[in-house]
Amino acid sequence: MIAEKVKLMEIKRKARIDSKTLEDLEFPAVLRQVAEFCVTEPGKESVLSISPFKDFDEIEPELKRVKEFTASFDGENRIPNHGFDPIFRELRLLEIENSSLEISGFRKILSISETTRILLKFFKKFEEFYIHLNSFSEEVNYTSIISEEINKRVDKYGEIKDEASTELGAIRRRLNVVKGKINSSFTKALSQYTQSDYLDEIRESVVENRRVLAVRAMHRKKVKGAVLGSSKTGSIVYIEPQETLEYANELSNLLYEEDEEIKRILKAMTEFVRPHASLLASYQEYLIAMDVLYAKAKYALKINGVLPIIVSEKKISLIKAYHPLLLVSNNKRKEKTFPQRIELVPEKRIIVISGPNAGGKSITLKTVGLLQVMLQSGLLISAEPQSEMCFFKRVLTDIGDNQSIENHLSTYSYRLKKMNQFLKKCNNKTLFLIDEFGTGSDPELGGALAETFLEVFYEREAFGIITTHYTNLKLLANELPNAINANMQFDNKSLEPLYQLHLGEAGSSYTFEVAQKNGIPYSLINKAKKKIERGKVRFDKTIANLQKERSNLRKTSESLKTEEQKARIESKQLEEVNARVQEKLESYQELFDANQKLISLGKKVDVLSEKYFNNKQKKQLIDELMKLVMIENSKRKKLAPKVKKAVKAKEQKIIKEVEKKVEVIRERKKEEKEKAKKLPPPKPKVTLKIGDRVRMIDGRAIGTIDTIEKNKAIVNYGMFTTNVSLEELEKV
Predict the structure, then answer these.
(1) What's this model's pTM, rounded to 2 decimal places?
(2) Who contacts 236 (Cβ-Cβ below 8 Å, separation ≥6)?
(3) Cα 16 from chain centroid?
């Protein structure tokens, strides 16, 4: 049933998206990467033959099954192994009348049957986790009679059981008896000839599955038996003793009978299995399908694939979309891959992307097409789960230089042929992707024809993306209400690509700017500008200026965002610090208030003790003390033991914290005192008078005081005099 269904699906699949489109979008390369995760050869072949489904009803369950399989890798209820050995040969033999399968074939059939049973049982048990995988598995019409029949006759080692038939059991019992007699008789002969010293050091060997004596060549005639061979040098002759020969012949007959009985059993088993051949084929197809789902799920993990939101209306909204091949390649090289934000809706159903080469136009176009084809083939896509996608009946592409030598077609001829196909097939259920639209011919004529094609696609309400350098197509996209211009962003100074798509504006080709950057003389560039229409240069320059302005605005915006985020973080940190400081202040205030309360209480007790010291009236002291205690107790609140414990713990924590900080202050003051002790004592202040020899505290020159007036003195240094404060002088 499943085999027929798969074949029917394959027929339906081939109807809409041709192989050339798939090649243009590099879909076969994706399939090769997916196939690497398959655990079986039939699974790999099945993956490599995948092509997009025709209808939404077919693809949606497949996507959900892949999603469930992907989720199983991280869950506790991991899906059991689905590996198997293919039984294509066995199925072909079952179609031939009177054919018989080998024991290895039954082992493979048993393995496939048991693997299928385990998977079906697993999905049934965890139906709530694997809804779609279970519903898919329920289509398999499983029966256990095949496994039961094989298990009756084949053991766990893949050999025919003794109980497979009465005759086989009897033969094998006789075989065991004969083997025992052979071993016994051989052991006897070995012992006899060893004592006679007729045997070589190795004593015995095995020739043609028979135990033989290793007899020295000189004694060969002394040993009775059949010669079965000799050593390379001829020094040893291998002889089967006469005592074992008659048993050996009996053994050969029994082995022949055993072989014939096994053939008869295998024949009977084959006849039993033959009516169930289609069922076995469905088991194999089911396991192949599981292998394909497993590979798709593994690939999804590799590219961070997700199931986007599937919508019925025509819409593509890709958020952080990656080209999967580019993503895998860059991840290997540990390079960054730039995501794209692309949107195609009925109001903006055609995007015209312009701008210089090597900016990412083609990759952006291919990303959309490849993700669309992957989705319609049952593969999860490399984008955000909030992305929205629909299904297109047709996907049409014209990508790259398709010059055909075999058909004697130029690039332009080939592209015109493609456009003719587009005109026949393009409608409101079509997604078209055209790279470098209109190239390959005279720019004026080719541009005019490309403009006409674009108008036709627009009138038919098709969805599509076009990359171009033609100014007229940029202008047309600006005029058409449901079309939009776009460009790949460039750094306005370095002219390096930023690999980000910007909707709403046409892109400049930066033709002359790039030429100047690459060292082309300005005189030649200026000469080239004069050779073309002034309007085109002005238009391209205007676009370039707009892009520069937008680039500056983007950088300013990013800078402001960064500053805003920084300010927000700093503000939050400041709030946290303030909160911590406030908390500590409150804690310290509570401790201070508690200590002040204790000091006040201590003063009151001191007053009472002084009264008692003076009057020695014990009763008065006790009365006043009890009164004080009663007053203080009236202020207390009875707390629960837990609360009391928590309050005490908090107090202890605060006290320890304060003591730690006080200890630091004490240590610092102690150090300062120690340092002060080590300093030399200050010199006693001497009263200076006229005629004293002095010098400045921080100087070397010695002079004599001539006059003293208020707190200043005129010091004579011989060659000159100077007015100095008395505090700056010291007596010599």
Answers:
(1) 0.66
(2) 200, 202, 214, 215, 216, 217, 230
(3) 33
Contact (Cβ atoms closer than 8 angstroms) between residue 198 and residue 178: no
Tokens of 349: 């159903």
Q: What are phi and psi of 229, to 5 degrees?
A: 160, 180
- Which residue carries 């015109």 as its tokens? 416
Nearest Cα to Cα of residue 223 among 200, 207, 206: 200
DSSP characters over 305-318: -B--EE-SSS-EEE
How far is 624 from 325, CA to CA, in rounded Å? 93
Task: Single out the residue of 257, 218, 222, 256 nearest to residue 242, CA to CA.
Answer: 222
**Token pair in block for residue 381:** 């896509």
- The token duo for 659 is 């003591």
β-partners of residue 210 are: 207
Token pair in block for residue 129: 């986790």
DSSP 402-451: --BTTTTB-HHHHHHHHHHHHHHH-STTEEEEESSTT-SS-HHHHHHHHH
Strand order across the beta sheet in which 316-321 lies: 309-310, 388-389, 316-321, 340-344
Nearest to 299 by CA among 589, 610, 70, 521: 70
Q: Are 255 and 237 contacting, i.e. CB atoms less than 8 angstroms apart?
A: no
- Give the type of residue at 426: C
Evaluate whether 279 touches 141 at the Cβ level (below 8 Å): yes
Q: Compute the residue count for the chain.
A: 732
The residue assigned the tokens 């205030």 is 589
Residues contacting residue 55 through CB under 8 Å, at least 6 positions apart: 12, 391
Q: Which residues make Cβ contacts (< 8 Å) with residue 155, sequence separation at least 6?
A: 161
Quick: pLDDT tens for 506-536.
655 555 455 555 556 656 655 555 555 444 4
Give the three-state DSSP class for 665: helix
Token pair listed for 557: 């915006």
Of the candidates 375, 617, 381, 361, the one whose C-alpha atom is nearest the C-alpha of residue 485 is 361
Are 217 and 237 a contacting pair, CB within 8 Å?
yes
- Tens digits of residue pLDDT in 430-459: 999 988 775 655 555 667 778 888 888 899
Range 381-395 average pLDDT: 92
